[in-house]
Amino acid sequence: PNHSTYYERRQKKRIDKIIRVVTRSFFLLIGIPIFIIGGLALFFYVSSSLKDHSIQKRAEEGDASAQYELGMRYERELQRGREIPQDGKEAVKWFRLAAEQGHAHAQSNMGSRFYEGRDVTQNKKEALNLFKLSAENGIVTSQLYLGWMYYQGMETQKDDLKAFKWWQLAA
User: Fold this and answer.
1) Given CA atoms 13, 17, 20, 22 in this order, what sign does their dihedral have?
2) CA 91 to chain centre
3) Cα(34)–Cα(128) distance, integer angstroms
4) How far from the centroid of its chain's Cα atoms is residue 53's Cα?
5) What are the angstrom distances between the C-alpha of 143 and each of 50, 92, 102, 168?
6) Could you tell me if 72 and 90 are in contact, meaning their C-beta atoms sit under 8 angstroms apart?
7) How far are the Cα atoms of 15, 38, 52 from residue 43, in angstroms, in the given order?
8) pLDDT averaged per 10 residues in sequence order, the chain, 171 residues
9) What pLDDT, in 10s, does the model give residues 122-167?
């Protein structure tokens, strides 16, 4: 009986040692990488917040690309992975500023808004002017709208040749 108790204690010590080694190994293999990944996630979250702030700042300083990007974020309810309130009026504000500086995508976006009356008063004459500006800079959506407006004679004289020209460029 004495011998089996000694053997049982020894076996228990071995099992305890194995459990300690496995626990430490688990921490080294799983715990440390999780800690590192958590740190990286925090780093990217903070740096994306700084980048968001940077875009806002650049937009306010008159950078047309940043103004367009900010407009897109308000339009799509997304700001670097975090939801922001969708705000069509705020989007229009930034698109309009970028369009006034000649940003072709912003001109196209504002053109479609005026065409449809989305977040602005519908104004197809203004849409036509914006589509012309952005279509000349190769924006396919504007080329398609412009072709349609010439084909229909919307706010311009009906002109099938101009319509075909813009549709061909868009193709």
Assistant:
1) negative
2) 13
3) 55
4) 15
5) 37, 21, 16, 9
6) no
7) 41, 9, 14
8) 70 81 69 68 55 81 94 73 72 96 96 94 97 96 95 94 94 89
9) 999 999 999 999 999 999 999 999 999 999 999 999 999 999 999 9
Both tokens of 124, joined, read 């197809």
| Amino acid identity for residue 136 in this structure | E
DSSP string, 38-81: HHHHHHHHHHHHHHHHHHHHHHHTT-HHHHHHHHHHHHHTEETT
Between the alpha carbon of residue 3 and those of residues 7, 17, 27, 133, 142, the distances in Å are 6, 21, 36, 97, 92
